[in-house]
Amino acid sequence: MVVLDVYFLQKIYAKQHVFCDDIKYLILIDDDLHINQFDMAVVIANALDNAIEGIQRSTGDIEKLISLDIHRASDYVSIIVENNASGPVYSDFPTSKLDKKNHGFGMSQMEAISKKYNGSFRPSFDSEKRRFLLKVILKNQKN
């Protein structure tokens, strides 16, 4: 998955420029992946971009961490991204960018891809732990 490798390495390098204390990752997928590389890249890129932006917007004494976990279990691939966030996330997850006309498509793209692969899309925010969690599950099936 060369596309994912290059993108993820760029994001790890970029952490030095986004005031992030740490990025933790665990990627356990094998060659028997029947999910289009482009679709995987869209999910991971949007999830990481959102996590990095959430970290950048964080205020106060919150520890700035991002966690990425990608693994395959049985017939499913799980993509789980967590990041600390200082504020609440709204239930419909609108864009926080000023240019709303040209932004705010990442969450809907990830949700559409999860539906395409008969999976699930579950964003959530734990206000007590001040932690955003995104779980995208994709069915790894041959077409």
Explain what you see.
- The chain is α+β, with helices and mostly antiparallel strands.
- It has one domain (2-139): Heat Shock Protein 90, CATH 3.30.565.
- The chain is built from three helices and five strands.
- A hairpin with a 2-residue loop joins β2 (65-73) and β3 (76-84).
- α1 (2-14) runs parallel beside α2.
- The longest helix is centred in the first third of the chain and has 21 residues, at 37-57.
- It is globular, with a radius of gyration of 15 Å.
- The relative contact order is 0.19.
- The model has no long low-confidence stretch (mean pLDDT 79).
Strand order of the largest sheet: 1-2-3-5-4
Order of helices and strands: HEHEEHEE
Radius of gyration: 15 Å
Oligomerization status of the protein chains = single chain
Mean pLDDT: 79
How many E strands? 5
Low-confidence stretches: none
> In CATH terms, what is the fold-level topology?
Heat Shock Protein 90
Q: How far do the termini sit from each other?
A: 19 Å
Question: What topology emerges from the helices and strands here?
Answer:
Elements: H1 2-14, E1 22-28, H2 37-57, E2 65-73, E3 76-84, H3 106-116, E4 120-126, E5 131-139
Parallel strand pairs: 1-2
Antiparallel strand pairs: 2-3, 3-5, 4-5
Helix pairs in contact: 1-2, 2-3
